[in-house]
Amino acid sequence: MMRWRSIGQTSFGTDLNEDKSKSLEGTGSKRKRHSGIQISFITQICGGETFCIAMNDTNQLIGWGSAFYGELGAEDGIQGSTMNEEYQVICAKPHVLFPSSLLRWQRVACGWHHVLASGFLYAWGSNTYGQVGPFPPDPKSNSKLPNCVFTPNLVALPVAVIQVSAGFGHSMLLDQSHRLWTWGRNWYGELGLGEAFRDIKSVQTPQLVERTESQPIQLIAAGYAHSAAISLEFGQLYTFGWGLYHQLGHGTTENRHELTRIEAFDGIFDHQGSPLRIKTVACGMWHTAACTSSGDLYTWGWNQDGQLGHEAKASKLSPCVVSSQNPATQESLENVKDVVCGGRHTTALCKDGQVFHWGLQPSSNVKGVRAIASGHSNAYILPINKN
After folding, report:
1. Counting Cβ atoms within 10 Å, is residue 35 exposed (0-12), middle (13-18) or buried (19+)?
2. What CA–CA distance (Å, rounded) separates 185 from 155?
3. Residue 22 pLDDT > 90, yes or no?
4. d(CA 17, CA 36)
5. Per-residue buried b or exposed e for 83-98, using 16+ beta carbons within 10 Å of the residue's own CB
6. Is the confidence at residue 160, as pLDDT, over 80?
7. Within 13 A of 83's CA, how many CA atoms are on the CB side?
C-alpha cells in the first residue's frame, strides 16, 4: 500500500523514516545525517526518485530523503572517493538547503536526480546529460559519479522565468512571454527542438522552442523521456518525445521531435458547450494524465500497474476519460482540479479537497487536502490550513 507523505504546517518528513535509515545500517555506505526542523507553512513541494524538496512561506527550500548526486545540496556532498564503495546521503528529517545563501526562491521542480529553482534560474544535481547546464563537475565529484553539481549554479538566460519542470534527463522552463525553453537529454525528441536536433542526443544550454514564439504556452510538464505543454490561447495539449508506450496520446508508438497537438480532444465540448480546454497535465514514466476546465480527468499510455485509473489494465493509445465512479476506490471522482504522475502511479485532487490515488502501491482516498505532488515512487499531500 502507498504510504501517504502528509506535509503539514509545523513538522513533516518523519515518514521518510527512521526504519528506512536503520535498514541501511551496516551496508558500508558513507552517510551524512541531519536533524529535523520546524516549518511554519509549506507552499510548494516536489519529489525526485529518492528525495523530496519543499518551499516554505519565507521562500526557503527544505529537503529530505536519499541523495546520490548532490540533489540535497553542497553540504551533503559525496564523502570520499573510493570507486568500489556505495555513497549515499540520508536525510531522515527535513533541513534547510543552502542556509548561508541569501537566495529566495519562487518555483522549484525535481527531476529524477536534479533540481531546478527560480526566480533567477538555478540548477544542481546530476548533470550527466547537461540537464543542469554548462557547468564543470563539482570538486566533490569523483570517478564513480563524475558529473554532479552540488551547489546552485545560475543558468544564464536573457529572460525571466515563470515556470520550471524537470524529467529524468531533461529540463524545461517557461519565460515571462510564455515561450518554452528546453535542454538536457534529447534521445527521443523530448526537448521538442525539431528535426535540426534529431541527431543531437544532449544539449547543455537552454534552447528556445521556436514554435512557441507564435504559440504561447501556459503550462509545461516533463516526464521520464516525454514532455507536454498546454497552449495559452486555446488550452490545447501538445506532447513530444518518447512514444513507445502511447504516452504521447497520438494513437501510435512513434517518437515526436516537435510539439504535436493531441487531435483526440478535437470535437469534445465542456459542460457549458464550449470547446474543451486542458487545465493541467502531468507526465509519468510511460503514461500521461490531464484534467479539463470542466473537472474531467483523462489518462493514456502504459497501464500495467493500473496507473491510468481504468477498470481494465490495458494500455490506452489516446486520451480516455476516467470514469466518475473511480474503479480503484468505488467512490465518486468528480470536479478534478489537479493531477500529478509518479513513475507508475497517478494522484488526482478534487475541488472538495478529496484525493484519489491509483497505480503501483494503491492507497485509500484522503480528504482535506489543498495541494498534491509526486515523486518517482511517492505521492505527497498538503493538508488544508486549519488556522
Report:
1. exposed
2. 16
3. no
4. 11
5. eeeebbbbbbbbbbbb
6. yes
7. 3
Query: Torsion over CA of 23, 48, 252 and 324, rounded to 10 degrees?
Result: 90
Evaluate if residue 167 carries a pLDDT over 50. yes
Q: How far is CA 55 from CA 106, 117, 258, in A?
A: 8, 10, 33
Is the pLDDT at 37 greater than 60, yes or no?
A: no
- State percent of the chain over pLDDT 90: 65
Q: Which three cell numbers stand for residue 256?
A: 515526436
3-state secondary structure the chain: CCCCEECCCCCCCCCCCHHHHHHCCCCCCECCCCCCCCCCCEEEEEECCCEEEEEECCCCEEEEEEECCCCCCHHHCCCCCCCCCCECEEEEEEEECCCCCCCCCCEEEECCCEEEEECCCEEEEECCCCCCCCCCCCCCCCCCCCCEEEEEEECCCCCCEEEEEECCCEEEEEECCCCEEEEEECCCCCCCCCHHHCCCCEEEEEEECHHHHCCCEEEEEECCCEEEEEECCCCCEEEEECCCCCCCCCCCCCCEEEEEECHHHCCCECCCCCECCEEEEEECCCEEEEEECCCCEEEEECCCCCCCCCCCCCCEEEEEECCCEECCCCEECCCEEEEEECCCEEEEEECCCCEEEEECCCCCCECCEEEEEECCCCEEEEECCCC
Short-list 118, 75, 121, 120, CA closest to 96: 75
Cell representation of residue 254 = 512513434
Q: Give the pLDDT score at 287.
A: 99
Q: How far apart are CA 246 and CA 316, in angstroms?
A: 7
What is the pLDDT at residue 301? 98
* Contact by Cβ (8 Å): 264, 319: yes
For residue 364, what are the contacts with CB-CB under 8 A and spacing of at least 6? Answer: 329
CB-CB contact of 209 with 179 (8 Å): yes
Q: Residue 147, Cβ neighbours under 10 Å: how many?
A: 18
This prediction's pTM: 0.87
Q: Average the pLDDT over each of 22-26, 182-186, 203-207, 255-259 and give the range with the smallest value.
A: 22-26
User: Do residues 151 and 73 make contact, with C-beta atoms less than 8 angstroms apart?
Assistant: yes
